[in-house]
Amino acid sequence: MEKKHRSESKLHIIYRYIMLLIGATLAALAIELFLIPNQIIDGGIIGISLLINHLTDISFGILVFVFNIPFIYSGYKNIGKNFAFSSLFGIVALAIIEPQLHHISPFTTEPLLATVFGGLLLGTGVGLVIRHGGALDGTEILGILLTKKLPFSIGEFVMFFNVFVFGWAGFVLGWEQAMYSIITYYIASKMIDSVVQGLEGDTKAVIIVSDHYEEISDAIIDRLGRTVTKLKGKGGFKDNEKEVIYVVITRLEISKLKTIVNEIDENAFTTIMDTQEAHGSKFKSAIH
Hints:
Blueprint lengths: L9 H26 L8 H13 L3 H19 L2 H17 L13 H21 L7 H8 L7 H20 L1 H23 L5 E7 L3 H12 L4 E6 L6 E10 L3 H11 L4 E6 L6 H7 L1
Antiparallel strand pairs: 1-3, 1-4, 2-3
Helix pairs in contact: 1-4, 1-5, 2-3, 2-7, 3-4, 3-6, 5-8, 6-7, 7-8, 9-10
Protein name: YitT family protein
Keywords: Cell membrane, Membrane, Transmembrane, Transmembrane helix
Membrane topology: Multi-pass membrane protein
């Protein structure tokens, strides 16, 4: 019998599309009120669209929509229809909202301020769209497809692609503007990572090996409010059985965890590792 999966609730779909709209709006604000007035671009399809807009005066919104159509189709075929529809919604929203901001005066004409705040705002917008299942730039989709056939990672492909984008920007806008654009791209990419990872990106996985594992486990549960997982292990020298404690905490709880472990067993072996994401209702409820 085929197993049926629970479909996404209508409330969650509405919430997701609201967040996609907010992300597209923030990206449009960054592009129209910070980047375009100061002749600064981003990387990828957005960067190419900004350059062609500068050269031809064709609407940025039209350009970014047209250039992303092939990538949306590829995303539909290779990643899924939810991704494709979310991306299409975000890109259409960006294409519609950005021209409506033409009448608003730029927030700043100081290139450095435009670089920093434009990058932060753009990265936040793009990150929100990615976090909620879509994309505003088809470069990474192309990277996913091509790296299956070429000996490059997605990151290497995107970087290689953007070398040409920023090189072209140097000839079109001037090398000083191209350098500002590279800084904008860097800031935006870091902001995207922060938004996509969110609170989960600030978590640590901890492994503790101690003969006092029961006492340490109870203290972590009582004093940190975290659940722990007990794993079975073996010592490498004596081949004796060991109990290993595994727990996920936030960065702010590291000091308190170290204090708990040292109070109980100064000789405990503790390893603290970065985690990309942490999911689960018990972990989230402990944060909130």
